[in-house]
């Protein structure tokens, strides 16, 4: 703006047509054409618009102050950023004799609005709505999500079956050992471990395969969800109106693509696997304990209520 347009082109008596949404450049314009929805909204000099359209000018004034604050935060302008910002601000304010009242008040209002927006954003980030979880799971697809939970369910079913087979094997082996020996030694028979060992080995191999399938399903789900959410986020950012980029800090947009995408990519799949694993583990433990000791069901209700309130407290 300073070196090419205001110096090189303007000093060379060139006709300049500048299409922009940066309102701080209006101070350098000889003639302004404001357009809205493809139609000319206002036309004239800045002083003419201030006299005839007071509300529109006040709106522009607010946006100029906001964009000026963004300009102050820039740290890499040309070779000498401090001198460049000073010259630009001096040029702007020398030609802007009209914008003189209530600038400090508007800056304070803008800062307070930014703080309120930041607090509301942090408050929203502190809460995880159920629809966000549902959107994450639905992004996995119709086939991949059932595969994930079915593999987890089968894996824990096989793990319970392995424990049951081992307990049954041990119980039968001990019962044979403690039985009194018959008087006729021809009736003595050793306990046959082969059927139990075969079933136990098959269940262990099946459990290993299901663990592998579950891990692949979790990573595959995380990869597919990350690609889909990232593509959706990128499309919405590209198609966002310019007002969004004027009011949203650049750091917030970059954080969505860096820190948040990193969380979705690396942390959520492992957390989801841990959650499903722990849930099925304690459900299977409750089922086994309730089957072996039915009296446990009486104490289950008060224990569940107590654990719920302890969980909410911590």
Automatic annotation (TrEMBL):
Biased composition (Acidic residues): 101-116
Pfam families assigned to the protein according to its UniProt record, in alphabetical order: ABC_membrane
Annotated ABC transmembrane type-1 domain residues: 147-314
GO terms for MF: ABC-type transporter activity; ATP binding
InterPro entries named in the record: ABC1_TM_dom, ABC1_TM_sf, ABC_transporter_C-like, P-loop_NTPase
Keywords, sorted A to Z: ATP-binding, Membrane, Nucleotide-binding, Transmembrane, Transmembrane helix, Transport
Sequence segments annotated as region (Disordered): 97-116
Domain of life: Eukaryota
Coiled-coil region(s): none
Membrane-spanning ranges: 136-154, 199-218, 280-311
GO cellular component: membrane
Name recorded for this polypeptide: ABCC8 protein
Organism: Drymodes brunneopygia
């Amino acid at each position: 703006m300073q070196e090419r347009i205001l110096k090189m082109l303007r000093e060379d008596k060139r006709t300049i047509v500048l299409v922009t949404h940066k309102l701080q450049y209006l101070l350098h314009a000889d003639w302004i054409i404001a357009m809205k929805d493809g139609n000319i909204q206002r036309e004239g000099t800045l002083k003419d618009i201030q006299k005839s359209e007071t509300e529109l000018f006040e709106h522009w004034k607010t946006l100029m102050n906001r964009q000026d604050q963004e300009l102050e935060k820039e740290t890499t302008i040309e070779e000498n950023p401090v001198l460049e910002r000073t010259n630009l601000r001096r040029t702007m304010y020398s030609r802007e004799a009209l914008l003189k009242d209530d600038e400090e008040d508007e800056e304070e209002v803008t800062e307070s609005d930014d703080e309120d927006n930041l607090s509301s954003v942090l408050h929203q980030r502190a809460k995880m709505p159920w629809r966000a979880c549902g959107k994450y799971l639905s992004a996995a697809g119709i086939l991949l999500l059932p595969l994930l939970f079915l593999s987890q369910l089968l894996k824990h079913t096989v793990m319970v079956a392995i424990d049951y087979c081992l307990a049954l094997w041990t119980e039968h082996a001990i019962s044979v050992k403690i039985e009194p020996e018959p008087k006729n030694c021809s009736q003595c028979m050793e306990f046959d471990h082969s059927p139990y060992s075969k079933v136990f080995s098959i269940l262990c191999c099946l459990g290993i395969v299901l663990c592998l399938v579950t891990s692949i399903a979790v990573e595959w789900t995380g990869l597919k969800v990350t690609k889909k959410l990232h593509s959706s986020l990128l499309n919405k950012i590209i198609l966002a109106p310019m007002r969004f980029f004027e009011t949203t800090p650049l750091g917030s947009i970059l954080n969505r693509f860096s820190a948040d995408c990193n969380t979705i990519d690396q942390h959520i799949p492992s957390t989801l696997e841990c959650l499903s694993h722990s849930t099925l583990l304690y459900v299977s433990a409750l089922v086994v304990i309730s089957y072996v000791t039915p009296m446990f069901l009486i104490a289950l209700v008060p224990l569940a209520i107590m654990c719920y309130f302890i969980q909410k407290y911590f």
